[in-house]
UniProtKB/TrEMBL annotation:
<comment type="function">
    <text>Catalyzes the conversion of acetate into acetyl-CoA (AcCoA), an essential intermediate at the junction of anabolic and catabolic pathways. AcsA undergoes a two-step reaction. In the first half reaction, AcsA combines acetate with ATP to form acetyl-adenylate (AcAMP) intermediate. In the second half reaction, it can then transfer the acetyl group from AcAMP to the sulfhydryl group of CoA, forming the product AcCoA.</text>
</comment>
<dbReference type="InterPro" id="IPR032387">
    <property type="entry name" value="ACAS_N"/>
</dbReference>
<feature type="binding site">
    <location>
        <position position="497"/>
    </location>
    <ligand>
        <name>ATP</name>
    </ligand>
</feature>
<feature type="binding site">
    <location>
        <begin position="171"/>
        <end position="174"/>
    </location>
    <ligand>
        <name>CoA</name>
    </ligand>
</feature>
<feature type="binding site">
    <location>
        <position position="508"/>
    </location>
    <ligand>
        <name>ATP</name>
    </ligand>
</feature>
<feature type="binding site">
    <location>
        <begin position="369"/>
        <end position="371"/>
    </location>
    <ligand>
        <name>ATP</name>
    </ligand>
</feature>
<keyword id="KW-0436">Ligase</keyword>
<feature type="modified residue" description="N6-acetyllysine">
    <location>
        <position position="591"/>
    </location>
</feature>
<feature type="binding site">
    <location>
        <position position="482"/>
    </location>
    <ligand>
        <name>ATP</name>
    </ligand>
</feature>
<keyword id="KW-0007">Acetylation</keyword>
<feature type="domain" description="Acetyl-coenzyme A synthetase N-terminal">
    <location>
        <begin position="6"/>
        <end position="61"/>
    </location>
</feature>
<dbReference type="Pfam" id="PF00501">
    <property type="entry name" value="AMP-binding"/>
</dbReference>
<keyword id="KW-0479">Metal-binding</keyword>
<feature type="domain" description="AMP-dependent synthetase/ligase">
    <location>
        <begin position="63"/>
        <end position="449"/>
    </location>
</feature>
<feature type="binding site">
    <location>
        <begin position="393"/>
        <end position="398"/>
    </location>
    <ligand>
        <name>ATP</name>
    </ligand>
</feature>
<dbReference type="InterPro" id="IPR045851">
    <property type="entry name" value="AMP-bd_C_sf"/>
</dbReference>
<feature type="binding site">
    <location>
        <position position="524"/>
    </location>
    <ligand>
        <name>Mg(2+)</name>
    </ligand>
</feature>
Length: 631
């Protein structure tokens, strides 16, 4: 708390000075003298941070550590197969990245070119990101679980000239044919596909794959044809570093653009303050590099700070539900950063798989991606962390580059489910639907009133959509799309997306609250709540409920759950419908897609919209079927 307060005061005293001092954490080829120049007015829209500074993100993550940390492990890789792992030092990572950068260069890939990465969770994924950054190419990582169609649309959207991939990915004992998917995507992309003149393939499983002469290269052979030195390209702070497509929870994914200087400062700053990683700690973020969390908190933040970052190829439940905690013991992990969806899935398996491990090395637990239900928070805190590890519930978005609202480890941990306070330097606020500021304890729409270095600079190829989506609802302010409640202590509780807020008989309710009440019932593993048109109440409450392993779905239980929510929250929140379901539609990053559930509840299963980022499309059919009982 004390450090948070001191930093916040420094920011209040002189904002430019605060952010220029934070920029000092990086190695700049040319130090910036100007902090920012920002206007969120549609007329004269621009966002610039440290614009006179020159740096390179790859240099930042590798070269600057060579002298003091050359032999320190940069990437600790844990394979899908529990018997396989590998430690890569900063010096070794530097060499691999230089070689990969040289391979790209030799094929004419250079500054400003877009390169798609469609990779398994192997160290080469990080090398590929850093190799692009090294030569000033703009990477766009596409999660390896996406289909050829989804990949094709991203190749087209960003105008890629090269793709870096692997023969196959391993995940949970299964394989995914990455190279084959790339070939199909390039074909599908037509003219945009023809523009791809290099496919660089990493050999992971040794599977036989197609090979197109003149276009395709193997990484394991081409790496020996180039030298291990590659100077890093001096980049202006505002040169783009990467494009990343959002999860698609609310609609068609947006190609969010992040630039070099501000993003790197913000990733480094937040990683240091939130995770407090000591020099000898092993830090583990379980996200995939295909998401923003993987960018900022597996690769750029930790490596910029010289941390040992663990990269995991597999999934938390393979070979069994103990895997995560076994990895913690095997590598003596100190900080673990995961998502509520993983926590709820593991919680469903009971305490046994956790308790048979030691977890003595753990110092801190983090969560990100969705509101965490207090029940899941307590389990994480008490069972996994044995009550001794602070939990950082980090709220942020692809568009924010790094965490904006979170507890810091030294804060008192007394509010399960609250993201609590803004990072020093961040200025959130709540407004009503007309944009009027709400003071003190209040609930409303979450906005940011001031820019920060890690903020996205645009949507690739569609700046209009960027301004329209984020800066037009409340002109001159950044609208997050999320709702929040601020309590008497000034702590923020994220209530979910404002599109998901229910209005039942004139009462506004966040879906998160009802979901948390359901998850708190001993029979319930997971829940998603949406509204549907109701003649009398305006909106009715439709709950999709996943039961715990081994619990029978009966009408009596559905009725009990209805009573349970009524007890916990009050009569206005009483569910009109409880649908016991086999699963929920989720994005590939594990978020519940409520917009699909809403359409089903509304009786419009023919209007589901963009479902390209859905993880298990067959779940949807079962839900449509199950909803017929309410017709
Ligand atoms: P799209 O923008 O395409 O609809 P998305 O919003 O799911 O997809 P992300 O940028 O990955 O894509 O997710 C950001 C959103 O995740 C936030 O706006 C918020 O709704 C939710 N979120 C992230 N972390 C938290 C958290 N700690 N607590 C509550 N909600 C969170
Ligand atoms: Mg979003």
């Amino acid at each position: 708390m004390r450090e948070r307060n001191a930093m916040t005061s420094r920011h209040v005293e002189n904002r430019d000075k605060f952010w220029l001092e934070e920029a000092g954490r990086l190695h700049w080829f040319k130090e910036p003298m100007v902090a920012s120049d920002v206007s969120w007015d549609a007329e004269d829209f621009h966002i610039r941070w440290y614009e006179d500074g020159v740096l390179n993100a790859s240099y930042q993550c590798l070269d600057r550590h060579l002298e003091t940390r050359g032999e320190k492990t940069a990437i600790l890789w844990e394979g899908d197969d529990p018997s396989v792992s590998e430690a890569i030092t900063y010096r070794e990572a530097h060499e691999e990245v230089c070689r990969m950068a040289n391979v790209l260069k030799a094929r004419g890939v250079g500054k400003g070119d877009r390169v798609i990465l469609y990779m398994p969770m192997t160290p080469e994924a990080a090398y590929a990101m850093l190799a692009c950054a090294r030569i000033g190419a703009v990477h766009s990582v596409v999660f390896g679980g996406f289909s050829p169609e989804a990949l094709a649309s991203r190749i087209e959207d960003c105008g890629a000239v090269a793709v870096i991939t692997a023969d196959e990915a391993r995940r949970g004992g299964k394989t995914v044919p990455l190279k084959e998917n790339v070939d199909r995507a390039i074909e599908r992309a037509g003219k945009a596909g023809d523009a791809v003149h290099l496919v660089l393939t990493v050999r992971v499983t040794g599977a036989k794959v197609g090979f197109e002469d003149g276009r395709d290269l193997w990484w394991h052979t081409s790496r020996d044809d180039v030298t291990k030195e590659c100077p890093s390209e001096p980049m202006a702070a505002e040169d783009p570093l990467f494009i990343l497509y959002t999860s698609g929870s609310t609609g068609k994914p947006k190609g969010v653009v992040h630039t070099t200087g501000g993003y790197m400062v913000y990733a480094s700053y937040t990683h240091e303050k939130i995770f407090e990683v000591a020099e000898d700690d092993v830090y583990w973020c379980t996200a995939d590099v295909g998401w923003i969390t993987g960018h900022s908190y597996i690769v750029y933040g930790p490596l910029a700070n010289g941390v040992t970052t663990l990269m995991f190829e597999g999934v938390p439940t393979y070979p069994d539900a103990s895997r995560m905690w076994e990895v913690v013991d095997k590598h003596k992990v100190a900080q673990i950063y995961t998502a509520p969806t993983a926590i709820r899935a593991l919680m469903r398996e009971g305490d046994g798989p956790v308790k048979k491990t030691s977890r003595a090395s753990l110092k801190l637990l983090g969560t990100v991606g969705e509101p965490i239900n207090p029940e899941a928070w307590r389990w994480y805190h008490e069972v996994v962390g044995e009550g001794r590890c602070p939990i950082v519930d980090t709220w942020w978005q692809t568009e924010t580059g790094g965490v904006l609202i979170t507890p810091l480890p030294s804060d008192p941990m007394t509010k399960p489910g609250a993201a609590t306070k803004p990072m020093p330097g961040i200025m959130p606020a709540l407004v009503d639907n007309d944009g009027n500021p709400l003071d003190g304890a209040a609930e409303g729409n979450l906005i940011l009133t001031e820019s920060w270095p890690g903020q996205a600079r645009g949507v690739w190829g569609d700046q209009e959509r960027f301004i329209q989506t984020y800066f037009s609802t409340y002109p001159g302010r950044y609208f997050t799309g999320d709702g929040a409640r601020r309590d008497e202590g000034g702590d923020y509780w994220i209530t979910g997306r404002v599109d998901d807020v229910l209005n039942v008989s004139g009462h506004r309710m966040g879906t998160a609250e009802i979901e948390s009440a359901l998850v708190a019932h001993p029979s319930v593993a997971e829940a998603a709540v949406v509204g549907y048109p109701h003649d009398i109440k305006g909106q009715g409450v439709h709950c999709y409920v996943i039961l715990n392993q081994g619990t029978e779905p009966t009408d009596a239980l559905a009725k009990t759950l209805r009573g349970h929510v009524r007890e916990e929250i009050g009569p206005v929140a009483t569910p009109d419908r409880v649908q016991l379901a086999p699963g929920l539609p989720k994005t590939r990053s594990g978020k519940i897609m409520r917009r699909i559930l809403r359409k089903i509840a509304e009786g419009h299963p023919d209007q589901l919209g963009d479902t390209s980022t859905l993880a298990e499309p067959q779940v949807v059919d079962a839900l449509i079927d199950g909803a017929k009982q309410f017709e």
